[in-house]
Write a structure and sequence with these properties.
- The protein folds into 3 domains: 31-155, Serine Threonine Protein Phosphatase 5, Tetratricopeptide repeat, CATH 1.25.40; 160-428, 6 Propeller (Neuraminidase), CATH 2.120.10.30; 436-522, Immunoglobulin-like (Sandwich).
- The protein contains 8 helices and 31 strands.
- It has helices at residues 3-23, 37-45, 49-62, 67-78, 87-95, 104-114, 118-129, 134-155; strands spanning 160-164, 175-180, 187-191, 210-214, 216-217, 220-221, 225-226, 236-242, 248-254, 259-268, 271-272, 276-277, 286-292, 298-304, 313-318, 329-330, 341-346, 352-357, 367-374, 379-380, 384-385, 399-401, 407-412, 422-428, 436-444, 453-459, 468-470, 478-483, 486-494, 500-506, 517-522.
- It is globular, with a radius of gyration of 27 Å.
- The protein starts with a helix and ends with a strand.
């Protein structure tokens, strides 16, 4: 069977299963009904863990000690983002069966790792390791190493704060792969929410993925808009890269006639245009994500192709005079491992590369790393882990930085979220806050000149901040404030005039939201 026939066959199978799932949603098991184990097994066999969970929960009410039901329910929790730690009691029961599943100790160790019970994870994985030989043995040794790494990373956390982007952006469904322009004036991201174009349920129980866009207003991201038919279709589209100027978005699509390819879409006046497939020097086999340098001349991307070091490797290609991409070059063994590397994102400086890896010194699954490129020598520094809690024991695959590296965006499943993966804004607290210079002027209602006034400014969010005092020019009334993002109260006093008190904001997100000039008028 050739490649096209294989794709066609898979698509026919996909639509057949998706039709059954979509039309079977209303027939999901109710707690009052007896569940047929065959139905639960059918969902489980297609990795539709969302649909399998209620079935196995009901089956366990009937047979609480059934090791098979416990094992499969544990797997369902382990491979969804509901709460992976819920897998532990079920896998513990399954591990004590007379004839336990072959991989139950591996999955139990993984569940302990997700729960940050690293010593329990190491102990359990070592038990599993004793049963293995060959490549499986090597993989488990690597998994144990990630547990050891995690213990150390947790002891030395990075000074960052997480801000959930809120209910306007995040939904109860997976929201992930956020990318911001360097000036933070808009964000694009991928979501598998129910109002997507096509609105069909896929074989894994989730809706198909679409790309959304949002802009900030007064330090809050506004309700996102589906990018519509020029970008999204009834199939899967995912944002996988954005140039620092926000003018070119890279996309991964999963369509009937195109699987595992990278496309681009150009931003014209805030609207992204119809996608175009990158040429075959990039899309030669199976590609997942990419990033283009600020000058537009180099693309970095992840690909699984012959001649690599492992599974997906990182590559680069230069732009030819005709606008096409030249033959790709593997970035080498400093960055690539025998495991997966993914989501290369070149920083606005064109030198720092952020990427995710399963092979370097991580905490588990994918971790985020950075490396610096010496273009003259075409060499890369040893990858540096971005640290905990930016990285977790989970799947940390994508990060997008603003131009000054004081802020980044990620997707994560964290306590207090709105459901599944949410989008978060990270602020690096050790970085200097961005200062906004505000030119202020004081006038009077009677147009008097040479008014001597005293100005006091208080930071209402930071109670430990010192009051700021200013002495405006008595003739012009002008004074200049350099303020970090916060909510401020200003008090202006002058003999013969009423005391003026006002509140204003210096916004943190994006450019162009803050005033550059502000006028205060004193009343008699």
């Amino acid at each position: 069977m050739n490649k096209i026939s294989t794709i066609f066959f898979k698509r026919i199978l996909f639509f057949a299963i998706a039709f059954l799932l979509t039309n079977g949603i209303k027939a999901q098991p109710k707690t009052s009904k007896i569940i047929d184990p065959a139905d639960a097994k059918e969902h489980f066999s297609h990795n539709n863990f969302l649909f399998a969970i209620p079935s196995y929960k009901q089956l366990l009410k009937q047979e609480p000690s059934n090791s098979d039901y416990n094992y499969k329910l544990g797997i369902c929790y382990l491979y969804t983002n509901i709460n992976k730690t819920l897998a532990i009691p079920h896998l513990e029961i399954a591990s004590k069966a007379t004839k336990p599943e072959k991989q139950v100790l591996y999955h139990l160790g993984l569940a302990y790792q997700y729960a940050s019970r690293f010593d329990d994870a190491i102990k359990t994985l070592n038990k599993y390791k004793a049963t293995l030989v060959g490549i499986e043995l090597e993989q488990i040794e690597h998994q144990i190493e990630t547990c050891e790494n995690a213990k150390e990373y947790v002891k030395h956390p990075v000074n960052v704060t997480f801000q959930n982007l809120g209910k306007e952006i995040n939904s109860e469904f997976p929201d992930y792969y956020p990318f911001v322009s360097a000036n933070e004036t808009f964000i694009v991201f991928t979501s598998r929410r129910k109002d997507n174009i096509g609105g069909q349920v896929e074989v894994d129980g989730y809706f198909s993925s679409d790309i959304y866009m949002s802009n900030p207003l007064n330090d809050v991201w506004t309700k996102p808009k589906n990018m519509g038919g020029t970008v999204n279709t009834r199939y899967d589209e995912q944002a996988v890269g954005l140039t620092p100027d926000g003018q070119t978005m890279l996309m991964y699509i999963d369509h009937i006639d195109s699987l595992g390819n990278i496309y681009s879409s150009i931003n014209k006046a805030g609207t992204f245009q119809k996608m175009r497939k990158l040429n075959n020097n990039v899309n030669s086999d199976f590609e997942t994500a990419g990033s283009i340098t600020p000058d537009g001349n180099i693309i970095f991307f992840a690909s699984k192709r012959d001649g690599g070091f492992g599974e997906t490797d990182l590559y680069m290609a230069r732009k030819l005079p005709n606008g096409l991409w030249a033959k790709a070059q593997n970035l080498g063994s400093t960055l690539n491992t025998k495991y997966k590397e993914d989501f290369p994102q070149i920083a606005p400086n064109g030198k720092t590369l952020y990427f995710s890896s399963q092979g370097h010194a991580g905490m588990g699954d994918f971790d985020l790393f950075q490396s610096t490129w010496n273009e003259e020598e075409n060499s890369w520094t040893s990858p540096k882990n971005l640290g905990y809690p930016i990285n977790s024991v989970g799947d940390d695959r994508c990060i997008s930085f603003t131009e000054n590296n004081r802020v980044a965006y990620i997707s994560a499943s964290r306590d207090g979220g709105f459901g599944d993966l949410d989008l978060y804004r990270l602020k690096f607290e050790d970085s200097d806050d961005r200062m906004t210079v505000l030119q202020a002027y004081i006038t009077t209602s009677d147009s008097s000149k040479n008014v001597t006034s005293i100005v006091t400014v208080r930071d209402l969010k930071n109670k430990n901040a010192q009051e700021l005092n200013y002495s405006p020019n008595s003739k012009s009334g002008k004074f200049i404030m350099a303020l970090t993002p916060s909510k401020y109260e200003i008090t202006i006093e002058a003999d013969g005039y009423k005391k003026l008190t006002d509140v204003f904001f210096i916004f943190d997100i994006g450019n162009g939201q803050n005033e550059s000039k502000k006028l205060f008028t004193l009343q008699k």
